[in-house]
């Protein structure tokens, strides 16, 4: 029987063939093991979820702790009108269209990131939030759910006094002030009659463009003895945020320019004392509406050319106020 012997060169080629087959298999197995190890490391990271309850307040900034690969839900007590995030490339913010009271936040960067978020509510309130993401490898607690609640008043006193008040029959609720009732009625008005007001001479300014693109609407005007109660609305038609100032009431004379030519000393506008006012929101986002009410002491008389006007100005354009002409005598009931 003959044995087949391989030449040394054949042995070398055979070894190279085996190595060419086994090395890629070994490398592929190593990559698969490394990928499985990485997936295991990410999935096995410790996550400490928390549920956060916060009051709605415009005087403080709340911190929300986030984590990459996780979404945080913010639940509001009323519908959200707009949201604005400082760094949209680092944080993804979504406003739910199915439930207008929900906002979702998720970090888009694996590293640590910090930014801010502004949430505007339908009532005109604003919530300022600082977004904190410590990165994917962090073990710090993260907020899974954040519940915002309306501000509540707290009574501070002894427990005996609280027990006594609980046992005693409750007093009837205090009657709402007329200015508060009037404001609620104006807020319930769905479609106010928007206008650009009048100019300083008392003419319609429908063709003029003010420095701040705002429109106003005059509501109900009622006479309360020596005082007049007026409700109104204002809407921000610009593309940026504005701050609405407290209302003013003036008695204006359109003959001021003619008086200057005659070198006579005349007053452009006499300030009418405002007794009380209400304003649902001071800072307005683009397209946002605010409602207000003002109560003032009406002058006893005026000249025929004088006009009683409601002046609404913004912080960035006080020299271009919106003027709404008021009736000198309120309509009868």
Give a verbal description of the structure.
The protein is α+β, with helices and mostly antiparallel strands and 333 residues long. It has four helices and 19 strands. The chain folds into two domains: 49-149, Immunoglobulin-like (Sandwich); 178-326, Immunoglobulin-like (Sandwich), CATH 2.60.40. Helix content is 18%, strand content 38%. The protein has helices at 8-43, 159-167, 178-187, 256-261, and strands spanning 49-55, 62-66, 72-75, 80-85, 91-95, 102-107, 113-121, 126-133, 142-149, 214-224, 227-236, 242-243, 248-252, 269-272, 274-279, 283-284, 289-297, 307-314, 317-326. Mean pLDDT is 78; it is low at 153-158 and 207-211. A five-stranded mixed beta sheet has the order 1-9-3-6-5, with no helix packed on it. Strands 2-8-7-4 form a four-stranded mixed beta sheet, with no helix packed on it. β10 and β11 form a beta hairpin. The chain is elongated.
Task: Give short descriptive properties of this protein.
single chain, 333 residues, alpha+beta, Immunoglobulin-like, 2 domains, five-stranded mixed sheet, four-stranded mixed sheet, 19 strands, 18% helix, elongated
Question: Would you count the extended β strands for me?
Answer: 19
Number of domains: 2
CATH architecture of the largest domain: Sandwich
SS strand fraction: 35-45%
In round numbers, the mean pLDDT is 78
Helical residues, percent: 10-25%
Number of helices: 4
- Give the assembly state of these chains: single chain
**Which spans have pLDDT < 50 for at least 5 consecutive residues?**
153-158, 207-211
Write down the Rg: 34 Å
What series of H and E elements makes up the topology? HEEEEEEEEEHHEEEEHEEEEEE
Overall shape: it is elongated
**Neighbour order of strands in the largest sheet:** 1-9-3-6-5
Query: What profile does the largest beta sheet have?
Result: 5 strands, mixed
The N- to C-terminal Cα distance equals 130 Å
- The top-level CATH class of the largest domain is Mainly Beta
- In terms of structural class, how would the helical and strand content be classed? alpha+beta
**CATH topology of the largest domain, which one?**
Immunoglobulin-like
């Amino acid at each position: 029987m003959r044995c087949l012997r391989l030449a040394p060169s054949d042995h070398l080629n055979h070894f190279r063939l085996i190595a060419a087959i086994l090395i890629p298999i070994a490398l592929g197995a190593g990559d698969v093991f490394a990928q499985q190890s990485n997936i295991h490391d990410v999935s096995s990271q410790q996550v400490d979820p928390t549920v956060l309850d916060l009051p709605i307040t415009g005087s403080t900034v709340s911190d929300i702790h986030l984590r990459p690969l996780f979404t945080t839900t913010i639940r509001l007590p009323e519908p959200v009108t707009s949201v604005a995030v400082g760094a949209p490339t680092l944080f993804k913010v979504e406003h739910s269209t199915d439930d207008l009271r929900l906002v979702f936040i998720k970090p888009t960067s694996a590293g640590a990131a910090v930014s801010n978020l502004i949430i505007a509510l339908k009532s005109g309130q604003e919530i300022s939030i600082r977004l904190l993401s410590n990165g994917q490898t962090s073990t710090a607690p993260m907020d899974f759910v954040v519940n915002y609640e309306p501000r509540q008043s707290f009574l501070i006193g002894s427990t005996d006094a609280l027990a006594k008040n609980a046992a005693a029959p409750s007093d009837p609720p205090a009657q709402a002030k007329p200015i508060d009732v009037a404001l609620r009625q104006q807020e319930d008005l769905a479609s106010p009659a928007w206008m650009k007001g009048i100019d300083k001479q008392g003419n319609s300014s429908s063709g003029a463009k003010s420095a701040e693109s705002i429109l106003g609407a005059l509501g109900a005007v009622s006479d309360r003895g020596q005082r007049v109660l007026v409700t109104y609305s204002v809407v921000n038609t610009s593309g940026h945020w504005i701050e609405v100032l407290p209302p003013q009431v003036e008695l204006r004379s359109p003959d001021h320019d003619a008086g200057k030519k005659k070198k006579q000393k005349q007053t452009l506008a006499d300030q009418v004392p405002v007794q009380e006012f209400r304003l649902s929101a001071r800072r307005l986002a683009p397209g946002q509406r605010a409602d207000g009410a003002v109560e003032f002491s009406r002058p006893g008389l005026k000249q025929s050319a004088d006009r009683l006007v409601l002046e609404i100005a913004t912080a960035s354009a006080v020299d271009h106020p919106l003027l709404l002409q008021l009736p000198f005598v309120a309509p009868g009931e």
